[in-house]
Design goal:
The chain is of the alpha/beta class. The chain has a domain at 76-236: 3-Layer(aba) Sandwich (Rossmann fold). Helix content is 45%, strand content 15%. It contains nine helices and seven strands. The protein has helices at residues 4-17, 31-44, 50-69, 78-90, 105-117, 128-141, 154-157, 177-184, 207-215, and strands spanning 95-99, 120-125, 147-151, 167-170, 193-197, 219-224, 231-236. A seven-stranded mixed β-sheet has the order 3-2-1-4-5-7-6, sandwiched between helices. α5 (105-117) links the parallel β1 and β2 (120-125). α4 (78-90) packs parallel to α5. The radius of gyration is 33 Å and the shape is globular.
Length: 240
Amino acid sequence: MTSGGDHDDAKGKQMSRQRPKKTRFVASIPIAALFSVAVAILAASGGAQREPASLESRAQARLMWMRENQKGMWNVNPEEGAFLQDLVVKVKAKRALEIGSSNGYSGIWTALGLRQTGGHLLTLEIDEGRARLAEENFRRAGLDSLINLKLGNALEELPKLQGPFEFVFIDAWKQDYVRYLELVVPLVPPGGVIVAHNVRDLRDQLQDFIRAVKTDPHLKTAFENPGPGGFSVSTKLPPL
């Protein structure tokens, strides 16, 4: 049994061990303000630069779809397409010309390079069905704003064009390659390139063209084989 004094001492010790409760204050931030901060952080971290990457992915996905679903179009293969893209960037092409759109496969590769240089592509196709396919593929790839497709015979359309075209790609009727060459050489400025497909796998059909690009005094020609078709790459020389 404890005395009253002992009880008061025990109660005092118990009270001395208790800690005062702390009051917590939570800052109230409007949701709109939080959203604005998040947007600013994303932009500073490069979020604004993700669109070009997504466009590249979209174009590559369409190219893959075309390889699987639109066969028999006499297209370049992926390695050759990448070669064209890199060459467009290398010559810093602002205006590119393609003779023979087919279903737009090589045009998409070319336009991917032109996205980096700020350029545009004019592509010529004689067949209405292939032209429709090409226009749909350009749109699906997200590159239609960089490409103008003209339906018609290249031999009739080329004389109407005005240069300069820093990049020209020939991939059409093989028997007319020499005539195409004669028409485009004046449209290409010094340092520009004229690229022709199939000089390896269809070499027998292109002997006259190969001789022409090797002997033309306005051109310096190399032969590249990133894929089975093979390319001639003729660089326009400055005037003497």
